[in-house]
Design a protein that fits this description.
4-stranded parallel beta sheet; homodimer; 5-stranded parallel beta sheet; 10 helices
């Protein structure tokens, strides 16, 4: 059974079990770092599309220490936890169980501590040649889309599922398409000490993940993720001919924001790398739902750049100085 | 009439006028850059404290291009716009009027374009010796607190207003208190090309504003704002003895996150500047509401540092190379 089918069943069951208690009134997307970033498109979907269901996108440790008052029996908690052993996310999952929330855990390993605290584990695809339609970002989206369809209704449901059917092919073609420029990028930026990332809309967090998980964590390069709409209200003053910017041009409603930032960069910066979702083929997905697929595209094209950069810098993506190595 | 009294009246009127239409079901906090940052504590308040009212915190241009479906007659839109002339925020305000939302505009100048699009302009305090209780951040909080009290009820309402009575004195004492260390900070970091800021919880956006509005915009220093709960899931790998971190230790529910990050910094970093809300006197505000006052404290203590840094670097805070000077 695919992740999509599995999650359709899980959402149905959760709604059925809560029918007499007032249904699902809130959905919280909770995780840490890259796992939190991966949930952003689904949180953005709920914020933009839902008329009645409250939603939140919160770091696990903040969620546990500063829990929203409404979190309880009418809540659906969606956590992502790659190896199932992040203490803060396990704590969030436990809290969900204590409060009587429905808890769906998106994870990769089939055995881990976090699995003891959920009735609804979902194992997402990961690794070389994974099916992008089964990745954690898509899993979280299936939950959101299904929840909306089964409660308020979602008019673009079929279009969304058509997009989900196409995303794997789009990503694989895009990865092949950027291979050459990724190597040029790696040569150009191998000695840089700082690289900015930029994005907007439902795809914003793929720029966030590239910033915190790749540049900072895996390459020890300073980085900052700038929202393209915020750029003109402060950050753009650091723009100059030396500073590198890696910018996502998304497809969908916020493309105008990204294009405006790119136009400015082309005037005042010199070292710009552009990932354009239109050029990379995302437009074959219907415009009513395309926003939510930017993340899966960008986040899966970045690895082509990342592997080239790591090789060029002789700094393997797996090297850490603190993570899993010291106490924290 | 104080901003607080004025906003009590405005919220009552908005609720009365919407009673027959189903009331206020959503509240959106919208702005750009520092004006968006200033609205964060109120958005965080709604997210944490409300059982039924949806809320969002969104950049103006993203809000206009990617408007949530539920935005309309049952919505309250709160925008902040310092000079009343930011095109994206004017567009958001116009959109609010078109959609039949109630629109409150927090602004500073008593004459500006944005005022033609709202029935509810509120002029906040600004400048030297301003009353902190009348600042935009507090104005947005009064709206949120009043909305919750008049709809669901808010049990800590009196405690919150006691806090609001105290915040001006706390801030002014804290500013005097850090004077000396702010000058030492300026001398130490005058030649740095990058400074990280860190924060969490309802006070997170004061670290965001220091990053984007001061370091990047007003000093052309590279910067990135790290959430202390996210720090351990990527960003901490850039930590070393040379890289400077300016960290907020908040009072309230997320203090444990900040203290954990500080403990790590004290082990592996050497150049750390700490703003501790406890040391700076915020604990005289009741613990049930203290989270929401961190922002006003930090955001108003930073200027002591910022002025010292600007003087030491001979780079006035008012200098821009692009903002208001070129087309964008």
């Amino acid at each position: 059974m695919s992740q999509r089918e599995q999650l359709q069943g899980i959402v149905s069951e959760i709604l059925a079990m809560r029918r007499e208690k007032g249904g699902v009134k809130q959905i919280y997307f909770v995780g840490c770092g890259g796992s939190l970033g991966a949930l952003y498109p689904a949180a953005n979907f709920m914020q933009r599309e839902s008329m009645t269901i409250k939603s939140g996108w919160i770091n696990s440790n903040e969620f546990v220490h500063s829990t929203p008052k409404d979190f309880g029996e009418n809540s659906l908690l969606v956590v992502a936890c790659h190896r199932g052993n992040t203490p803060e996310t396990i704590a969030a999952t436990k809290l969900g169980r204590e409060k009587g929330a429905a808890v769906i855990v998106l994870t990769w390993l089939e055995e881990s501590e976090i699995l003891s605290y959920t009735e609804y584990p979902v194992f997402y695809t990961f690794g070389a040649n994974k099916d992008i339609a089964g990745e954690k970002t898509m899993c979280a989206l299936y939950i959101a889309v299904e929840l909306l369809k089964q409660t308020e209704g979602y008019e673009h449901y079929d279009r969304f599922m058509e997009g989900a059917d196409r995303i794997d092919g789009i990503v694989k073609r895009a990865c092949a398409h950027v291979e050459k420029r990724a190597h040029a990028f790696a040569k150009e930026y191998r000695d840089d000490k700082l690289i900015y990332t930029m994005g907007s809309g439902a795809g914003y967090a793929s720029a966030y993940m590239e910033c915190i998980c790749i540049f900072m964590e895996m390459q020890w390069i300073h980085s900052s993720c700038i929202h393209t709409g915020e750029y003109f209200h402060g950050p753009f003053e650091v723009t100059d001919a030396e500073t590198p910017f890696l910018i996502q041009i998304s497809e969908g409603t916020t493309r105008a924001l990204d294009e405006r930032a790119l136009k400015f960069l082309k005037t005042y910066a010199k070292r710009i790398e552009v990932l354009d979702a239109k050029e990379l083929g995302l437009s074959t997905i219907d415009s009513s739902v395309v926003d939510y697929f930017n993340h899966s595209l960008f986040n899966n094209v970045y690895p082509v750049y990342n592997e080239a950069l790591a090789a060029e810098r002789q700094h393997p993506l797996s090297t850490r100085r603190y993570m899993w190595r010291v106490e924290y």
